[in-house]
Design the sequence.
């Protein structure tokens, strides 16, 4: 499903992957423009991992987003409220998130999602980030096949 104004999980804000996507989901939800399919995991899953990584609470983050500001300003707020991850912390975070679903405890979930989407043979979709991009029509193979 293509969701306008929802970034790929690969997109980074000051080097931090996924953070911008989480902000997009919050903004879309606040504008009543986030599809119902996304509501069940709002604040959970990768969102929950991201706020835990930054040591902030999701409800506080949603309130900060409601107040407005750029992604960078909101990230600055997170750092002031929680912690400033080091460059190494961010590298580890990015690689963990980028590879989630590839030979780990989330692999079963990825297989389930691929089966539900009718693409069990898409071996090029190896991670949950890959699947999200496929599902949201950012997958070049899907765009040319459709």
Sequence:
């Amino acid at each position: 499903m293509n969701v306008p104004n929802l970034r790929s999980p690969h997109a980074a804000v000051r080097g931090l992957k996924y953070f911008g996507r989480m902000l997009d989901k919050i903004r879309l939800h606040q504008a009543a423009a986030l599809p119902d399919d996304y509501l069940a995991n709002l604040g959970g899953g990768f969102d929950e991992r991201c706020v835990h990584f930054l040591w902030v609470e999701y409800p506080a983050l949603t309130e900060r987003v409601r107040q407005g500001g750029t992604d960078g300003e909101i990230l600055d707020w997170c750092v002031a409220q929680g912690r400033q991850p080091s460059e190494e912390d961010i590298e580890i975070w990015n690689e963990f998130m980028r590879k989630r679903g590839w030979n780990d405890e989330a692999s079963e979930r990825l297989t389930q999602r691929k089966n539900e989407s009718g693409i069990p043979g898409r071996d090029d979709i190896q991670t949950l980030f890959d699947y999200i991009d496929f599902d949201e029509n950012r997958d070049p193979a899907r765009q040319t096949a459709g």
In short: DSSP finds eight helices and two strands in the chain. Confidence is low (pLDDT under 50) at residues 142-146. Residues 99-146 form one domain.
